[in-house]
Amino acid sequence: MDAFQWLYSDIVKDHFTNPRNVFDPDKDGNFNADAEGMVGNIKCGDQMMFMLKIREDIIEDVRWKTYGCASAIASTSMLSETIKGMNIRDAYHIRPADIANKLGGLPENKIHCSVLGDKALRAAIDVYLAREGRAGEFNGEDAQIICKCLNISDKDIEEAVRQGARDWHSLQEATKIGTVCGSCKTKAEELLHEFIHIYS
Ligand code: FES
Fold first, then answer.
1. pLDDT, tens only, 127-153
2. DSSP summary character for residue 20
3. Pairing of β 58-67 and β 145-147
4. Are 188 and 171 in contact (CB under 8 A)?
5. Which end of the chain offers a freer environment for a tag, N or C, measured as fewer CB atoms within 10 Å?
6. Which residue from 2, 30, 42 is spatially nearest to 176, judged by alpha carbons?
7. What pTM, to 2 d.p., does this model score?
8. 39 CA to middle of ligand 1, Å?
9. Which residue, 160, 20, 156, is CA-closest to 94?
């Protein structure tokens, strides 16, 4: 048995070997997305793009593209299947832990690979809302964006702390926060210490 077989659930293996809704420029050249979201930086090794077709706030179709490992590909594939037919408000509030559960879990050291898909999805929905004259409509509901480069909110920091992040390095491992321009670090560290105080 090789490492790939025992590290990953059958669902992860299925989505990694047969990823759904991947953007293929040959087949999807006329996809005509209503909104696109991109997060990450290829210089840092990870980049994620989401393209959405939306009608009356329902996600009708989706395409995505990433440079990532098995966990990133399987997570984004599952996320793309999950949001088809979903209201954009519900899709906006999906978190990496929801997708990891649907995949039957991910290896502990691979969780950090699965955290860009939901951010790119939210970035695309934000673009759609802005085009509709509804900018920021969902932000105030339960999340404040702390890292603008990666679309990471206070809820993501809270979730990382709940999952065990206890310092800047482990928070970055869990979320990739601050890995582009770094200007969010002060605010993010304040929140990190607040949540550690709450959850430790
Ligand atoms: S705002 Fe967080 S890395 Fe730029």
1. 999 999 998 888 667 678 899 999 898
2. S
3. unpaired
4. yes
5. N
6. 42
7. 0.75
8. 11
9. 156
Q: What spacing in Å lies between the alpha carbon of 55 and ligand 1's midpoint? A: 31
Catalytic residue among 113, 147, 149, 184: 113
Domain boundaries in the chain?
Answer: 7-142, 144-200
Question: Is 184 one of the catalytic residues?
Answer: no
Q: Which ligand 1 atom is nearest residue 152's CA? A: 2
Please tell me if the domain spanning 7-142 has the same topology as the one spanning 144-200. Answer: no
CATH (residue range 144-200)? 1.10.10.1100
- Ligand 1 centre to CA of 138 (Å) is 20
14 DSSP assignment: H
- Mean confidence (pLDDT) of the chain: 88
- Judged by DSSP in three states, 52 sits in strand
Cα 137-139-143 angle, rounded to 5 deg: 155
Per CATH, the architecture of 7-142 is what? Alpha-Beta Complex (3.90)
CB of 188 closer than 6 angstroms to any ligand 1 atom: no
Which residue intervals of 45-176 are DSSP H helices?
Answer: 70-83, 88-92, 96-102, 117-131, 139-142, 154-162, 168-175
> Measuring from atom 1 of ligand 1, which residue has the nearest CA?
147
47 with 67: CB under 8 angstroms?
yes
